[in-house]
## 1
Amino acid sequence: MNQILTISTAQLLLALVFILIAQASSFIYHLGLNRDITIGTLRTFSQLFLMGYVLTYILKTTNPLLVLSVFMVMVVSAMFIIKGRVKEKQIPYVIPTFLTMLVSYMATAIFVSGLVVGITPWWEPRYFIPAGGMVIGNSMSALAISLERLFRDMRQQKELVEMKLSLGANYREASLDIFRNAVTAGMIPSINAMMGVGLVFIPGMMSGQILAGTDPLIAIRYQIVVMLMLVGSTAVSSVIVMLMVRRRCFGSGEEVLLSPR
Amino acid sequence: MTPLLEIRNLSFAYEGSPALVFDHLNLAVQEGDFILVKGPSGSGKSTMLRLICRLSKPQGGSILFQGNDITSIAPAKLRSLVSYVAQIPQMIDATVAENLLLPFSFAINAAKPKPGDEELKEMLCRFYLTDITLRQSAMKLSIGQKQRLAIMRALLQEPLLLLLDEPTSALDPESASMVFSIMERLNTEDRKTLITVTHIDYKPETVSPLTYNLAHRSLHLAS
């Protein structure tokens, strides 16, 4: 019962039928996604296989520096993905975003593995790396959504922001609605996930544990911790990044620096 | 006597453009002045007003307000003293009253006495806005009504200098004439100091403004 069934290479390739369906849909309806689907599939295979080999090695390590290095690589990769999605040239947002991600995700992962799960040492890779990975993956999407929203609204509502500035508002007051909307936009997916979890979908981590033979009642406890961790880390990182990047949208005279595209 | 506003050798170029819009532009404004700046579209009239209230940044020169360099004044403080009304009036999606009281929601104006409904209604009459109510949506007003409301809102924070950017360019002749009349009354009756920029041929009826032409990257006194 507790023994997990392995997936053979042939079975793995059989799953590619789903990709063929997606490719066919894109081809028939001219969605223009064939190239992205192909690249995405190749990356899924190569990145996960690479990760599998790396994790096999990392999970056995007793060197905290190696674990933290892996964590750092994950954060840097997430930053590159955000940079690819948020096409902003005027406002330098990369450094504040990267530093916030590094610090807040590290703090969350340490809190969860060290205090909530209570594993010793706190950097025990079997817990620290998956926890960090989930935090980074989830918050990365939230940050990209929030940043895109912030820059888009700052551009679209430049006249409105300048009107408020002209009436004596400081830059925080003039852009308060834009700031709130940006943070909210990034957080909604995490909050929606809390609403639907267990009803609409079984989360990946819990599914994995159940497939591996863990008692579902233990798996749900881990999953609850993960859901709460994701909402918290998303909120903290989004608020801090938006606060720092919003300031950079204004000059020393609190004038709006973004020009319309 | 220290001018209320003094522009010294101002130079400005748009980002990425080597061509200067202004080069050594100078202007002195005394309290109670009505300054009219004329010039064709694209001559930099709006930019000049934006530089005065720090919505844009100059490449060179300085602007003094009450003898102090504007860069030494906190931006929110400066903009509560020097109020700029843009060419296209902007309203928040709220009632007329909420729009008029918007400046009081900002920290810099929080201590100022907030006008009551009666005071606002009287002001609406003075601004030829008798056909609107305080509780109606500001978004549904005509552009001419919005323009008058925007000027009224800027005045409610009691600035020492009012900057009006092409206040009639988007208006029909009737609304434009109302705005001109308001501007002149603000100067003659309320002793407000105004700088208005316009590209149209406006001849004031009740005031004699100091008129400048903005040409060849500088201001030239026309009257």
## 2
Amino acid sequence: MRYALFLGCTIPARQNNYDASARRVSEALGIELRDIEGAGCCGPTFVRSLDYESYLAMAARNIALAEKMGLNILTLCTGCYSSLAEARLTLVEDPQLRDRVNELMEDTGPKFSGEAEIKHFSNVLYHEIGLDRIRSMVKKPLKGLKVAVHYGCHLIRPSEITGVANPENPRFLDELVEATGAESVYWPLKLWCCGAPTLAVDEDLSLRLTKAKIQDAKKAGADAMVTVCPTCELQFDLQQSRISETSVGSYNLPVLFYPQLLGVALGIDPEKLGFGLNRVPATGILQFSKQ
Amino acid sequence: MSHASPATIETAKLSRDFKFEIANTPEGKTLLDCYQCGICSSSCPFSEYLEVKPHQVIRLAILGMRDRVIGSRTIWICSTCFTCNARCPQGVNVANVMFAMKNVAARERGAPEGLVELIRKIYDSGRSGDVTDLEEEDRKFLGIPPTPRADVAATQRLLGRTSLRRLFQEAK
């Protein structure tokens, strides 16, 4: 099982813990990842907000690089996943738009054809590796750990792009979390936006959503929040100290990337999973690796 | 409608073609299917803070109140969570219609500076975030390969052909 790994912008700039843990877990599960030389920004929503064609062309340029490698794309970022997957579908279905985008891409690298499929890491774990295999490899079951699962909007909606049959109640990430032995708790605001995309437009409004969600997860008794979206992780982890009621009394809710959680359960050294880069210390989870 | 809405609509001032301007774009094509049930507004996590709610933006566009749409804060507050799309009984892709409106607003009135800055960063470095020696040190420590090189020249050639080029010409 081999994929072209599309890293995007946020992960190498701020979250090498996601990258490292995803690579360690992939290695353990037999997923081979190849970096894409020359890949850049995927054409995220803030580009799409300003100019639709620029978004499509940026996404298509990156997809074309993987096509030249002869590999399907695996993304860690849910935003990149959504940008690339929707652009691919749009351009495969609309030859006129595809020609226009290939014009914009002239002399920037290979042409876009639409051959490479776009998959998110969580889809590959769930559909290609499978829960049974993951369960069978767990060495340190995370019994008693309560997790607030946060998907990231662009991993589940719109379902025409993501293929998630019930975007009002998705289960795959909950099941992946439960495969480690942890418990996925019910929290009413689970499927709400984290607020991050609005941060650069209106910081106060953006952080209101973040705060509501963190309070909700705490109220549900979560020991940690687990996500697969770097933008959401950054919002919950980095911004958590800013939205605390008092300077001392922080919410103290660790925010982990799923492969960090899975990595601990698989018995991988937490240092190699990048726990040192999580801003809210995940002390409680690290206890499991010592057992 | 909120208290800030005008009591009367001056029909002579309406831009009757605005709805087609939006509906004729790939992102805006579902605009005309709205029947004003308001589920988008009741699903939007930002609704309670918005003076003009999502379903009102849609209605203003269909009426032809162009300035109020492209001048509205709502279209830029949208975090594109796509909950409205998922719940609309008419299949209106509300978040996409907002993208189409933002494209018009960005061309005619500019975009929020925070977003423009991110796009300038992409033009300058190929990515929207800085990868410094510090991050490369982290990667070495974690035992993972260096960040793959971004192709800045290709990014600049591509963006230089799009309508976004004005952002970089102004910046220089």
